Amino acid sequence: MKRITLIVALVLLLALAVVGPAMAGAPLPAQPQLPMHTAILWYPYDGFWFEFPDGTFASEIDHLAGDPIPADYNLVVGSGWVTLTLGRANSVPYYLQYRVKVDGDVKTTFAQSKAFWTGAFTNGPDPLFPPFNAKIGALPWVNYLFMPLKTPAPGTYALDVTERLSHTTTDMIAPIEGTARHPIMYKPYVDSLPTGSFTIAP
Hints:
Layout: H1 2-19, E1 38-42, E2 49-52, E3 61-63, E4 74-83, H2 86-91, E5 96-102, E6 105-108, H3 110-113, E7 141-149, E8 155-165, E9 169-171, H4 173-177, E10 184-186, E11 189-192, E12 196-200
Parallel strand pairs: 1-4
Antiparallel strand pairs: 1-2, 2-3, 4-7, 5-6, 5-8, 8-11, 8-12, 9-10
């Protein structure tokens, strides 16, 4: 009897993890708010950057490679993870970390990057990603990583970002976006993709 009770309890905990706070009657986590006047260098970085004048995702302005970043902007290196369950989204910081270098100097270590995840949220009425089950309108869970950089003096700087996955995991973004029918399984790796440079305006 004790074993059956334990199994039932585990099943209930799993159900709560999948449907998240909605089942518990709590409001769903909303999109995170960025500081006003934020520039995000998104990993993998290819020179393009994204401006958020009022800190909301709705205010996004895309910039071409080489466009100077205003010197009074908050500078952030960003990444993210999209998945189907709350628990999986919130566990991302424990197995996906990043190291950031600017002109060869380490600005964020793998261990430090864990602290800069936003925590899982759903997109609510203004989804960044489509429902993974359109029949019931089930939206995926998102966890963003925003690693702040101290905005350097005007000039051009080399950015190097290394991504480390510490255990095998499933990437759900392809089927969610409709670019593949099945999830992609990734084994542990350390990957430093070619990044590029960014320029701070005078």
